[in-house]
Amino acid sequence: MAFGGFDNTGSNAPMSEINTTPLVDVMLVLLIIFMITAPLLTHSVKIDLPTASSAPTVETPDAITLSLDAAGALYWNNEPMPKEALAPRMADIAAQDPQPELHLRADKETRYEAIAELMAAARVAGVQKLGFVTLPAAQ
């Protein structure tokens, strides 16, 4: 970097070099500031806090399995049930709080009409959680 010279060429061209001295000065000041403040940021007060298990216990409602075979017979939790008892039982589970999940299992030979009737009966009774149980495909 040359600010002036002793040559007498007489050129008045502007200086084309970048003056990096202010940049270096600013960087050194920032480095010193960060060196001073960095240890202050990691300082912490060590205290012994009491431990307690405050995790709320979540009640998970039981799942009720409603099965329908190819002949049209109903099974409530794997126990045979007449079709006339379906509406009162669904009304009972709809009234519970929290409402249990109703898992619907049907034979693959079952007509869609019978499954649709079960879903409609669950909707009329007010069942909010209805799921279908399937088996994974054979590998």
Low-confidence stretches: none
How far from one another are the termini? 77 Å
Secondary structure: helix percent: 25-40%
Trace the largest sheet across and list its strands.
Answer: 3-2-1-4-5
The secondary-structure element order is HEEEHEHE
Q: How many helices in DSSP terms?
A: 3
Oligomeric state of this protein: single chain
User: What is the makeup of the main sheet?
Assistant: 5 strands, mixed
Average of per-residue pLDDT values: 82
Indicate the proportion of strand residues.
15-25%
Q: Shape from CA axes? A: elongated
Task: From the alpha carbons, calculate the radius of gyration and give it in angstroms.
Answer: 40 Å
Can you characterise this structure?
- By secondary structure, the protein is α/β, with parallel strands linked by helices.
- 32% of the residues lie in helices and 15% in strands.
- A five-stranded mixed β-sheet has the order 3-2-1-4-5, covered by helices on one side.
- It is elongated, with a radius of gyration of 40 Å.
- The longest helix has 21 residues.
List keywords for this structure.
elongated; alpha/beta
Secondary-structure topology with pairs:
Layout: H1 21-41, E1 63-68, E2 74-76, E3 79-81, H2 86-95, E4 101-106, H3 112-125, E5 130-132
Parallel strand pairs: 1-4, 4-5
Antiparallel strand pairs: 1-2, 2-3
